[in-house]
Amino acid sequence: MMQMVGKKVGEGGCSEVFEWGGGNEQIVKVAKGNTIADAVKREFSNSMLVWENGLPAPRPYEFLEVDGRPSIVMERVHGESLMEHFFRYLMQSPSEIDQTDDNEDVIKITARLLSETHRMNNLPLPSQKEMMVHSIRSAGYLSEFEKVQVIEHLKGLPFKKQVCHGDPNPGNIMVRGDHAVLIDWMNASTGNPEADLAEYIIMIRYAILPPHTPSSAVARFDSLREHIIEVFCEEYRRLSGNSLDEVEDWIMPVAARKLCADAIGEEEKALLLAEIRSRL
């Protein structure tokens, strides 16, 4: 099996990504030790379901093990992630930024992909609220009483049955030419679109850039955070025709769910914790 694994082409909080099969059209996502086989099987099942229903997702091919680690063989998306685009933008000099006029268009890509995803209803995906309750209960940082308060708030929110991605961060959006796709459907669910929107808002508002990021880029991102959120929300509202009045109610439970994420550090979790406690 290992002879089919090529060079490493990416890495996230839960997996490493390698070329697969000696060609250039497939990759294999190999789980890290913090991800159990059932979670990878769920990602494969979710990915197959959304791909078969025409949502903007790469094609999954096979669930297997690579060197004893649960893995998924998938279509390779040749292109650039929005994360890579944003970092390149932040690193530009002021004179280069003055010449950049497409950054708002890039922000709108996420709104477009989510509005397209949320139009799909009633796919047999896991329950969003059940997944969130499990994550909140297993997260550290909050006291048991605080967890009960957050879960009671969550259970009181309206119940919907739309397809939600669960992790619409810029690293999970790949752009190839004029098209974009959402990758990493492990946390996909049937539920409330407002949770996806709250996830995006929280991420932009509280994300901590890597420690090697130049201070000028950090300052530029800090100055743009609320503008990015505004552009995203306005585009989603325009495309979906929905008001975003309910999104605010999802900020607290989504932030609580994120406390169990391996991909974010202690500084960001401290910000999320303060946000949660300010709302309790």
Strand and helix map with partners:
Layout (H helix, E strand, L loop, with lengths): L4 E7 L3 E6 L5 E6 L5 H16 L7 E7 L2 E7 L4 E2 H10 L2 H5 L4 H16 L9 H11 L5 H12 L6 E3 L8 E4 L2 E4 L6 E3 L1 H14 L8 H26 L6 H12 L7 H14 L1
Antiparallel strand pairs: 1-2, 2-3, 3-5, 4-5, 6-8, 7-10, 8-9
Helix pairs in contact: 4-8, 5-6, 5-9, 6-9, 7-8, 7-9, 9-10
What does this structure look like?
- The chain is of the alpha+beta class.
- The chain has two domains: 2-75, Phosphorylase Kinase, domain 1; 80-279, Aminoglycoside phosphotransferase (APH), C-terminal lobe (Aminoglycoside 3'-phosphotransferase, Chain: A, domain 2).
- It is 49% helix and 18% strand.
- The chain has a five-stranded antiparallel β-sheet with strand order 1-2-3-5-4, covered by helices on one side.
- A hairpin with a 5-residue loop joins strand 2 and strand 3.
- Helix 7 (193-206) runs antiparallel to helix 8 and helix 7 crosses helix 9 (247-258).
**In oligomeric terms, what are we looking at?**
single chain
Strand arrangement, major sheet:
1-2-3-5-4
Overall number of domains? 2
Which blocks of ≥5 consecutive residues have pLDDT under 50?
Answer: none
Features:
280 residues; Phosphorylase Kinase, domain 1; five-stranded antiparallel β-sheet; three-stranded antiparallel β-sheet; 10 helices
Provide a quick synopsis of the model.
By secondary structure, the protein is of the alpha+beta class.
